Task: structure prediction
Amino acid sequence: MPDNPLAPAWLRVPEDANVLADGLWSRNTRRGDSGEIEVAGVPVSRLAGEFGTPLFVLDEEDLRERAARTVDAFRREFARIGSDARVYYAGKAFLCTEVARWVTAAGLGIDVASGGELAVALAAGVDPARLGMHGNNKAPWEIERAVRVGLGTIVIDSLQEIGAVAAAAARAGRRQAVRLRVNSGVHASTHEYLATAREDQKFGVTLSDVEDAVGRIRAHDGLEFLGLHSHIGSQIFDTDGFVEAAARLLAVHARLLDGGPVPELNLGGGFGIAYTSVDDPTPIDEIARRMADIVRAECDRLGIDVPVVAVEPGRSVVGPSTLTLYTVGTIKDVEVTLPTVPVPEEGASRPRAANGVVDGTLSVAPAEDGDPDAEFTVIRKYVSVDGGMSDNARPALYGADYTVRLANRASDGEPALVRIAGKHCESGDIVVHADYLPGDVRTGDLAALPATGAYCWSLSSNYNYLARPAVVAVRDGEARAIVRGETEEDLLARDLGIDRRTTGATGEQDGE
Result:
């Protein structure tokens, strides 16, 4: 079967549209003998029946194992070069009290980026000394709370913030450990909006301002300077960016040693994961090994001791652990008209269609009778689901690609190119831009998207007044909700204009 010309260049027609590709799904997700997808022994139909859809389904054992493996990898590799590593879980990827407990039990600290994330970590019983706080615009009350509860570190993001943290430390009568966020100027190979270390952006201070900023920090008795902090981006597949960032930061780090101790260097996170079959992220053990070698070599070149190195993975810990389960609704076969282009000769580069959609994936039909204006039509199958950009904003924000599979059954149907659309009143509400499902997909089927653990629930919203989904943890054949799904009552509870004498949206009056 030929590729559909509407498919992107990287996407190929699968031999079997039921196969769950290696590397995309959590370790305990498989298609059972009945053809239904199971997570840790629990069929997805049971989960949908008990908790509804959309639903985030988290493989608890998978997340715990990834967290433990990450800590082990970095500690082992930095011990090899005579140092140590500290691993913080980036809470912004996804945070709830259970996840906070799991990652800290595995040996990680937690990086929080707001007062709300801090509140969740504290509610989970996490020792404040194992927490770090980021943020380019921390509110005064956030700084006060962080200092008051004894936060392990605060990442100072601006010259202005130095005085604010110092004042809060003085009021609390304690010495606050801080790092300084540095905009290293390194361009990570990632989406423009995910690259967070470029010169013209909101995070950190420039390299040229570092020594002045550290001098100001050291002038306050209530502040303890731990070291520099950098974050070069997200969804990074190689270590080239970390090589350059480490070189630039360690050069400044070495100069700062003349004024006092600099025990740490934080290189951030952003380690990528696979969302599609063509994504090829570097394994975490390899990342740890390369980063240790990078730091060791640069410190040797500079003639300085290797500092303790901190990293902050989030996506790579939680992302692959979770799938999102949807119920299929409306299905439409949409005819798309494309201009014909000549079939290229053997070995020639593929043409791009005039509309910019096709990227050489198919030798499309030549113009009949030599007519250069001839057109032909192909079918794109729109499969709408009961969620969308309110539970996964990444495709709309970043053009992110995902994979989809039929979840409640296997099918012998011929693969059909589909676009998974959400139910919101936005033409850009697309969950999966392009993938292949069995052509007999029908209303009422369950569809599953892997690798939705990071930046999906955490970016969720109530757009169009959709209730945010539940998050369910599954382990050893048992499932339990760890974040309750919202109800319409939850949505209406904040509307202060509602007459509380009415019940729900029916308008019926409560009885006496």
Q: What stands out?
A: Residues 190-196, 346-368, 506-512 have pLDDT under 50 and may be disordered. The two ends are 68 Å apart (CA to CA). The chain has two domains: 29-59+321-486, 60-317. The first strand starts at residue 29 and ends at 31.
